[in-house]
Write a structure and sequence with these properties.
11 strands, five-stranded antiparallel beta sheet, alpha+beta
Length: about 325
Amino acid sequence: MKSSRLVSILLLLQTRGRMTAAALAQELEVSVRTVYRDIEALHASGVPLYGDAGHAGGYRLLDGYRTRLTGLSAGEAEALFLSGVPGPAAELGLGSDLAAAQLKLRAALPAELRDQADRMRSRFHLDAPGWYAPDEAVPYLTQVAEAVWHSRVIHVRYRRWKEPTDVDRRLEPYGLVLKAGRWYVVAAPGPRTYRVDQILRLSCDGSVFEPPPGFDLAAHWQRHQADFHARLYSGRALVRISPAAEGLTGPVAQALADTGTAEPDGWIRASLPIESLDHAHREFLALGTGIEVLEPDELRARMAGTVRELAALYAGG
């Protein structure tokens, strides 16, 4: 464990430059005291690193010092090969680069780790899109990726769901996100999120921008998803559900598990989030006689009306 941590400190200082003991401790999830001991151990082993005191101080390696990537564990080697997703890499124009990198990494591994990495790659395959999601053309993905990488401004013709549907936008792309097989670009102003497959036209005038300091793409995406779900499920419905009912998924199923209380007849009473009356009407009808809507009154009335219409339809047959 300690040897792995020492290698991590070396690689962090090599890739990020100067870092304080506190920053290293946070990155490695250890105490500052542990970092001090590790730094002393590296000193004792002859690693040329030194620390500077003061507000802008920290530890750094002697200029020009590099360490080789050694000491990979079996799990780390397996994870590296599992993380190489060929589909998205190919979409970004990096398919051949990924294959070459994996080949070089495989050649550098000891025989036993090479065998384990090969077994991992042969037994696990990631296919991100859903079963019923058609393959969508994303003709401008490579250009967007290049603009993200080089911090270049792009001008796009974008198709959105509301009127006017086709709009022109000047974007400063901060990052790309692959979610459920679909590519999104997070871009200023805002920043806001755009579906890359809805870009109808793209041009670049060569101008560049400076990303905001400290912008964290993963943290931004988490907040975006939380806000999306909060806006999506803006209503509530009080229901009773049979324990044998199936079909609820996502936040609705989670709310059932979190707020559901069992009643004497075995059914479960719960307050569930809903997108709209129309959506809840369709979703709850799919549960058939396994659900009873108690509130809101309008939704209960619509469910009852649909049931009467179905009964009349089948009675007439």
